[in-house]
Write a structure and sequence with these properties.
By secondary structure, the chain is of the alpha/beta class. It has 16 helices and 24 strands. The strands form four sheets. The protein has an eleven-stranded mixed beta sheet, sandwiched between helices.
C-alpha cells in the first residue's frame, strides 16, 4: 500500500521528508526487521517507542509514525507525527495487512473469569460443526495452520492484524478472541469490529491498572459500546451485578443466559455431576435440552451457555450445538484433572477471589472426602484481593496450603503474609516453595480427597525478579504421582 494512502487514513500533525513509498509491513518493536515497512513508535506505560526510531530505520523502516519527539532523523525516511500513536497503530497495521478483520466473522469475549473456557467451547462447537475457527486467547493462538502459546491474552495491535491476516490466508472465515480490559483501554482492538460480543462476569481484578471497579467495568463495556457492528449481537450474563450497565452500553441485539432468570434466552435449570463430567438441563430459546459434557463445574454451565448462544448467532443450529458435546472439550488448566486414583488432583487457573470461590464451591459439591487447596497470589498486582483469597481458601477447604505464585518483583514472603491476614482458622499450612507445597498436599491426600492446585493452571513458568523460570503445575503433579 502506498504511504500516501496510509497517511490519508489517520489524523496527522506534521509530515516530514515525504516519499510515496510502497509499504508492505508494519511493526512497533524495533528489534524486528522488515524492509519497506512503517514503524509505529508507540508511547508505552514504561517506555516510548520514539526512543528506538533510529534502530527501527536500521531494521528497514522507510517511515516512522510517532507521537512525542525523535532526536535523530534521517533525510531518506518519512516522519509522521500524530496526536495518538496507540490509536493510529491498529488502523495503520490493519490497512497494511489488507483489513483482515473485515474478512472474518469475529466473536469477542470479555469478562473477569470464564473467557478462556467460553472461547474454547465456542471453537469446539464450530469445529465439530465443520466450521474451522481461529482462536486468540490466554492459553493458545490458533491461526488455522499454526498454534502456539502466547505471552498475553490479546496481542498488541500490530500482531493482532498480522495474526488475523494469517487466519484469512489459511482460509478461515471465523475467529474467536478473548478481549482483555487492557486491550480495550490501550487501543489494541482499535477499529476492529465484532459480529458478536460475549460478557461472562465482572469481579475484582486488575485494580492495580484500573484503580476502581467502575473504571474496570467501563473498560470492559467498551467491547459493546465501541466495537460491535450495528448488525452485531451481545451475549450477556443476566445474573451478573453489572448486567444492566453492559446491556445499556449497546443498541445491538441482546441475548441473555442465566441460572436465576427463567425468561433468559438460555436458562440453566439443573446440573448433575457424573463420573466423567456433568449433565445439564437447559431451556434454550424456549426449547428444553439436556446436554452431557466431560467438563466439570457449575460455573462451566454458564460458560457453555454463553458459547451456545454465540455459536447459534454464528450460524450453527441448536441441535447440532447440543450434539457437539458428545465429543470431549479440552480447556487447559481450567479445573483440569491431572491425576485420578484413590484421590484426585485438579489444576485450575483461578487467580481472583471470585474464580477461586467458584472453583472450590464446585469441587465441594462432588467431593466425598477433604479438599486440600494449594494457592498463592501474583506479585505486582492488586494487593486487596490477597487476604480475601486467603479467607475463601480457608473457609471452603479442609486444608489450605499457601505458597508462591508468580512473585514477579515482589518479595514472596510479603505476599504470603498479606494472604494469611485473611485466614482465621487453624487449617493453614505455609510452604513458600510451590513444588514442595504441591508435594505436601499430595502426601496428605487420602481416599475420596481432592487436591486443587490453583492460580497458574496452564502456565509453564514461574516469574521471579523479571525472569520466567520453567515450572508447570501439571508436570509437577505428574512427576509426583506418576501420572494418570
Amino acid at each position: 500500500m502506498k504511504l500516501s494512502k496510509l497517511i490519508s487514513e489517520i489524523e496527522t500533525i506534521e509530515v516530514e521528508n515525504f516519499k510515496d513509498t510502497e509499504v508492505i509491513h508494519a511493526f512497533s518493536d524495533s528489534r524486528e526487521k522488515f524492509k519497506n515497512s512503517v514503524f509505529i513508535a508507540v508511547r508505552g506505560l514504561t517506555s516510548d517507542g520514539a526512543s528506538f526510531a533510529a534502530d527501527a530505520v536500521e531494521s528497514g523502516a522507510c517511515a516512522v509514525i510517532y507521537e512525542t519527539e525523535i532526536e535523530r532523523k534521517f533525510p531518506y525516511v518519512t516522519y509522521i507525527k500524530v496526536p495518538d500513536s496507540r490509536s493510529a497503530q491498529s488502523r495503520i497495521a490493519g490497512l497494511v495487512y489488507g483489513l483482515p478483520a473485515e474478512k472474518l466473522r469475529l466473536t469477542g469475549i470479555t469478562g473477569t473469569n470464564g473467557k478462556t473456557s467460553t472461547a474454547y467451547i465456542f471453537r469446539h462447537i464450530l469445529n465439530s460443526s465443520g466450521i474451522k475457527c481461529g482462536l486468540l486467547g490466554t492459553t493458545e493462538y490458533d491461526l488455522g495452520k499454526r498454534k502456539f502459546v502466547p505471552s498475553r491474552t490479546t496481542p498488541d495491535a500490530v500482531f493482532l492484524q498480522r495474526y488475523l491476516k494469517e487466519m484469512t490466508d489459511n482460509g478461515l472465515k471465523q475467529a474467536v478472541m478473548e478481549v482483555s480490559s487492557h486491550a480495550l483501554s490501550l487501543h489494541r482492538v482499535e477499529d476492529v469490529m465484532f459480529d458478536c460480543g460475549v460478557f461472562t462476569n465482572l469481579t475484582q481484578d486488575h485494580l492495580d491498572f484500573h484503580i476502581t471497579m467502575d473504571e474496570y467495568a467501563k473498560a470492559k463495556s467498551g467491547l459493546f459500546s465501541d466495537h460491535l457492528k450495528n448488525t452485531g449481537s451481545a451475549v450477556l450474563n443476566a445474573d451478573d451485578g453489572y448486567y444492566e450497565m453492559f446491556s445499556s452500553s449497546t443498541e445491538c441485539e441482546k441475548l441473555t443466559y442465566s441460572v436465576k432468570r427463567e425468561d433468559s434466552d438460555i436458562f440453566v435449570k439443573d446440573v448433575r455431576y457424573l463420573k466423567k463430567g456433568m449433565e445439564i438441563d437447559l431451556t434454550v430459546l424456549g426449547e428444553k435440552h439436556t446436554l452431557c459434557t466431560n467438563l466439570n463445574g457449575r460455573f462451566q454451565s454458564m460458560n457453555i451457555s454463553a458459547a451456545v448462544l454465540a455459536a447459534y448467532k454464528a450460524g450453527v443450529p441448536i441441535k447440532k450445538i447440543i450434539s457437539s458435546f458428545s465429543s470431549p472439550v479440552t480447556v487447559p488448566g481450567r479445573l483440569e484433572k491431572v491425576y485420578e486414583g484413590n484421590y484426585t488432583v485438579y489444576i485450575d487457573y483461578a487467580h481472583t477471589p471470585d474464580a477461586l470461590q467458584r472453583t472450590l464451591q464446585t469441587v465441594r459439591e462432588f467431593t466425598k472426602g477433604r479438599i486440600i487447596t494449594v494457592f498463592g497470589c501474583g506479585g505486582n498486582r492488586d494487593h486487596e484481593k490477597r487476604p480475601v483469597m486467603g479467607k475463601i481458601a480457608s473457609d471452603i477447604s479442609d486444608i489450605a496450603i499457601v505458597t508462591s505464585d508468580n512473585p514477579r518483583y515482589e518479595n514472596p514472603d510479603v505476599i504470603i503474609r498479606e494472604i494469611i491476614e485473611g485466614i482465621k482458622g487453624n487449617n493453614l499450612i505455609v510452604i513458600p516453595d510451590r513444588r514442595e507445597a504441591t508435594g505436601k498436599a499430595i502426601s496428605m491426600a487420602g481416599d475420596g480427597d481432592v487436591v486443587i492446585i490453583a492460580g497458574k493452571g496452564h502456565e509453564n513458568y514461574q516469574e521471579t525478579d523479571g525472569v520466567k523460570y520453567p515450572y508447570s503445575d501439571r508436570e509437577t503433579v505428574m512427576n509426583l504421582t506418576g501420572g494418570m
